[in-house]
UniProtKB/TrEMBL annotation:
Keywords: DNA-binding, Transcription, Transcription regulation. Pfam families: HTH_18 (PF12833). It comes from Nostoc flagelliforme FACHB-838. Signal peptide: none annotated. This is Helix-turn-helix domain-containing protein.
């Protein structure tokens, strides 16, 4: 991406792991990197190691740049990012504007959310997120798209709270799910265990009218498990029941329990 040329308006395709109309996650290997883009998405980047160089967030002048695990770079949709850096392995989250608006929809109804370009220094929650991402990729991507979407949603919510047009003006999210709402959620999950496409965080949260982030928080406080962990436990239980029928192959059991493929189910069992 030559720095003496106009910024690219599209993102490179290398490194993509998950891509939907509203969310992209890519893992980029370490190496020398020159970037010059005008982002088509809201980008949030976190490193697995130390990165140094020079960079500019929506500005003309390059400044000394350092990124550490637990810190985040924010490049809002439509803004520019220019850099020359020796980069460690890092993860790029790309969010559509509609995904961003939906994260805190309960609190921000009618208000436009805009991320602020720049960096968030290393924090404990940021380091936990970076470690979770690193373990995901290092351990055979156990959990698949649902896990990745859950982490991506939690990361974006923290960014909105700390570096957006609504920072400092958001209310405290709900702490618990009402028993009747919890029943609706659990029944929906059980009814859709075999439908991998129907069990993502956004769709589960929509059954009770919560934003994905607030639902995930309230569900964990109420049950002691994250939505992803609960779905995984239910799928394991279903797979164990199906395995008692020796007429089914492992591939059939994996598909019926919603694991997507036999390799994923085997990794989870291990």
């Amino acid at each position: 991406m030559p720095l003496d040329q106009p910024p690219l308006e599209t993102l490179p395709q290398w490194g993509h792991w998950l891509e939907t109309p509203e969310l992209m996650v890519a893992i980029i290997p370490p190496g020398h990197l020159e970037a010059n883009i005008r982002s088509p998405l809201n980008l949030v980047v976190t490193s697995f190691g130390e990165t140094r160089g020079i960079a500019a967030f929506n500005a003309d002048r390059l400044q000394p740049y350092q990124a550490l695990p637990g810190g985040f770079d924010i490049v809002p949709q439509g803004s520019t990012y220019t850099s020359v850096e020796d980069a460690s392995c890092f993860v790029v989250f790309g969010y559509s504007q509609s995904f961003l608006q939906r994260i805190v929809q309960v609190e921000a109804e009618g208000q436009t959310i805009e991320l602020e370009p720049g960096q968030i220094p290393k924090t404990h929650w940021g380091l936990s997120a970076a470690l979770a991402m690193q373990e995901f990729f290092d351990n055979g991507q156990t959990g698949g798209a649902f896990y990745l979407e859950s982490v991506a949603t939690a990361v974006l919510a923290q960014i909105i709270y700390r570096r957006s047009s609504l920072s400092g003006r958001l209310k405290r999210p709900p702490e618990f799910l009402d028993p009747n709402l919890l029943k609706v959620v659990l029944e929906y999950i059980r009814a859709n265990l075999s439908q991998e496409l129907n069990l993502n965080l956004n769709q589960i949260a929509a059954t009770v009218g919560f934003s994905p982030y607030h639902f995930a928080r309230a569900f964990k406080v109420t049950t002691g498990l994250s939505p992803y962990q609960y779905v995984l436990r239910c799928r394991l239980e279903l797979a164990q029941q199906l395995l008692r029928n020796q007429k089914r192959s492992l591939a059939q059991v994996a598909a019926e329990a919603g694991f997507g493929n036999q390799s994923h189910m085997t990794s989870v069992f291990q």
